[in-house]
TrEMBL record:
Protein name in UniProt: Alpha/beta hydrolase
One Pfam assignment: Abhydrolase_6
Lineage: Bacteria, Bacillati, Actinomycetota, Actinomycetes, Micrococcales
Keywords on record: Hydrolase
Domain AB hydrolase-1: 4-225
Entries under InterPro entries matching the protein: AB_hydrolase_1, AB_hydrolase_fold, Sec-Metab_Biosynth_Hydrolase
Native organism: Schumannella soli
The organism's place on the tree of life at top rank: Bacteria
UniProt GO MF annotations: hydrolase activity
Amino acid sequence: MKAILVPGFWLDGSSWSDTLPALEAAGHEPIPITLPGMGADRADAAAVALDDQVDAVVAALDAAAADGAPVALVGHSGGGTVIGVVTDRRPELVARAVYVDSGPLAEGGSINDELPIEEGVIPLPDWGFFEQEELAGLDDATLERFRASSIPTPARVANDTVHLDDERRWAVPSIVIASTMSSELLQQLIAKDHPYVREIAKLRDVRYIDLPTGHWPQFSRPADLGAALVDALS
């Protein structure tokens, strides 16, 4: 199966590198992408909106599905919101939606409007900004490499409102790879109608894969994340 891999904040397509061998060995075709504002165009990142990133993934999905082959979308962190909106735009083309320590947001939500903005972008904050649970599994050397390669995220992507209008998205088979929060905790939040999981609660075909670690399993447990992605696509 083709799998479009959408990175989260501060990351580009190379962040998936250590998960690719497992996918390729299982016969899948991973397609890691770098979102608008996060590559060669980063100088113009302040002008990049959430819809610009969604449009880029829609274009990649259309191209990948042109030969009729099944295509999965994989989104990490903020990339989960992006693939959730893409699934709303193209539900008939998404064979699976895989959310890595993330999930789709409901209508009217925004990814994170509390991140500190500098000149229209959001640099990677100091590590003290994050909960310790989010940093689990990352040693000092990995944190240093992460920071050195981090790319400021367009502020509008974090703050723009999510708009959805096709309820067929709820029928797309979906998998949540639960890292920072366990699947048990996610289920508890669903029972409490927490806004973070309100859209997950509406999915009609969803399963969970627990991968206990921090928020960046592609760095803390890359081989295990690769195996989890293979499981999700099976």
